[in-house]
């Protein structure tokens, strides 16, 4: 997986996403963004907005914000249910 997580130091919502990625063993790169919204140009260039966290998953062509949505996506895509579907499809 080639994933990038745009995050802010001390952001609890970012940490929820990090915890879930770690729990599922999903490898990702962190991009630390500026505290001021007006200076988050790297996030805006990717998503058109300046909110974090933002996950960009190049493997599936997905970029999204909002920790709840990101966690649901990661669980669905990389969690046990996704692993079971892949294993069943290979049988």
Describe the structure using short key phrases.
91 residues; alpha+beta; 4-stranded mixed beta sheet
Write the layout of secondary structure elements.
Layout: E1 3-7, H1 12-24, E2 29-32, H2 41-47, E3 54-57, E4 62-65, H3 67-78, H4 80-90
Parallel strand pairs: 1-2
Antiparallel strand pairs: 1-3, 3-4
Describe this structure in words.
This protein has about 90 residues and is α+β, with helices and mostly antiparallel strands. Helix content is about 45%, strand content about 20%. It is built from four helices and four strands; from the N terminus they run βαβαββαα. The chain has a four-stranded mixed beta sheet, sandwiched between helices. The protein is globular. The chain starts with a strand and ends with a helix. The relative contact order is 0.21.
Give a summary of the structure in a few sentences:
The protein is of the alpha+beta class. Helices cover 47% and strands 19% of the residues.
Tell me the domain tally: 1
| β-strand amount | 15-25%
CATH architecture: 3-Layer(aba) Sandwich
What's the name of the CATH homologous superfamily? Glutaredoxin
> How is the main sheet built?
4 strands, mixed
| CATH top-level class | Alpha Beta
Overall form: globular
> Which blocks of ≥5 consecutive residues have pLDDT under 50?
none
Biggest sheet: strands side by side, in what order? 2-1-3-4
Helical fraction equals: 40-55%
Count of helical regions: 4
CATH fold topology = Glutaredoxin
């Amino acid at each position: 997986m080639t994933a990038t997580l745009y995050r802010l130091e001390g952001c609890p919502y970012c940490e929820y996403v990090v915890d879930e990625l770690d729990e599922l063993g999903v490898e990702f790169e962190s991009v630390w963004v500026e505290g001021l919204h007006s200076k988050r140009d790297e996030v805006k260039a990717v998503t058109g907005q300046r909110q974090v966290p933002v996950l960009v998953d190049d493997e599936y062509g997905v970029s999204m914000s909002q920790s709840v949505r990101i966690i649901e996506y990661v669980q669905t895509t990389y969690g046990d249910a996704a692993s079971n579907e892949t294993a069943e499809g290979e049988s």
